[in-house]
Amino acid sequence: DAKANGRNGCRYYNPALTAEAVHRVELEAGLRRALAHDELVLMYQPQVEVRDGSIATVEALVRWQTPDGRLVPPLEFIPFAEECGLIDAIGSWVLRRACHDAAQWQRRGLDLRVAVNLSPVQFRASGLLDRIREALADSDLPAERLELEITESALMADDADTHATLAALRTLGIGIALDDFGTGYSSLSCLKRLPLDKLKIDRSFVSGLPDDVDNHAIVRAIVALARHLGFRIAAEGVETAAQAELLGELEADSLQGYLFSRAVPAAELEALASRRWPPARGTQFRIDFS
Ligand code: C2E
Ligand code: MG
Ligand code: MG
Ligand code: MG
C-alpha cells in the first residue's frame, strides 16, 4: 500500500496533509504563547439545584482569547493539547485559576463549589495529587469546595492506580463527578466499585426530552442506577423548561444548561450565583426571563 502511494506520489505530496501539519505546528506555537501571555480565560456555568433553585456548584470552562479577539472554544484546542503534551500546563493553569476564583467568592460570602474538568491524561499523570494540593493551599480554598469532573475514558483502565487516585482525592475531601455519563464504555460493575459523588447525564440524552421515548427511558434508568449506588445526579445541556420539568420529576438533583445560563466570566458570576430559580420539583417549572 505504501508502495502504491509512493508510486503515485500521493503519500508525500498531499497538499492537504501539508496544510494539516502546518496547522498543527501553528496551533502548538499559539498555545505556548497563550500560556506565556495569559491568553486563556475561565468562564463559569451554574448548576441549579432542583430542590430549591439555588446554585451550589459552577463548572469552570476554559476558552482561549487570541490576540485578534477570537474566543476559541475548548474542543478546538484541548484534544490537541492532550496530543502534544501541553494539557498538563493548561490543566494546571485551569486548576489554579478556578481555585483562586472560588476562594475569592468564598471570601465574598458566596457558598459555591467549583467543578474543574480533568482530561484523562491529567488524571493519569503522576504529579496530579501534588498539583491539586498545591492549588488548594496557594489559593486557601478548602478541598470541599473543589469538584473534579472526569470522563469514563479516564476510568477505562479500572486498575489499582485508578482506585488509589480516586480514593486519595476523596480523602482530601474533593468531590468526583463522572462527566458525559452514558457516552463512554464504563462497565456498570466498575461503576459500583468507584468512589464517585456525582454522575452527569450527557447532553445527548437530555436533548431529546421530553418527547424521545428512548432518551426518557435511558435517563430514568441512569437516575435509578445512580440513586441505588448513592451518587448525586446532574443533567447537562438543559435548554427548555419542559426538559427541566421532566428531569425534576425524574428526580435529578441539579440541572445545567442554557435554559439557566451559559458560562459567564467570573465577574458576572457573583450576580448570577445569588439568584434563585424556581425549584424544578413538585412545581410547574417556569422561568421568568424578564
Ligand atoms: P463538558 O465538560 O461536558 O462541558 C459542558 C459543555 O456543554 C460546555 O461546552 C458548555 O458550554 C456546553 N453546554 C452547557 N449547557 C449547554 C446547553 O444547554 N446546550 C448546549 N448545546 N451546550 C451546552 P464548552 O465550554 O465548549 O466545553 C466543551 C468541552 O470541553 C467540555 O465538555 C469539556 O469536556 C472540555 N473542557 C472545557 N474546559 C476544559 C478544561 O478546563 N479542561 C479540560 N480538560 N477540558 C475542558
Ligand atoms: Mg464537564
Ligand atoms: Mg459534561
Ligand atoms: Mg459534555
Automatic annotation (TrEMBL):
- Cleaved signal peptide residues: none
Molecular function (GO) terms listed? cyclic-guanylate-specific phosphodiesterase activity; DNA binding
Its GO biological process annotations read:
cellular response to nitric oxide; phosphorelay signal transduction system
Tell me if Phosphoprotein is a UniProt keyword of this record: yes
User: Start and end of every EAL domain?
Assistant: 24-277
Regions that span the bilayer: none
Keyword annotations for this protein, in alphabetical order, are: Coiled coil, DNA-binding, Phosphoprotein, Transcription, Transcription regulation, Two-component regulatory system
Name of the protein this chain belongs to? Response regulator receiver modulated diguanylate cyclase/phosphodiesterase
- Species for this entry: Thauera aminoaromatica
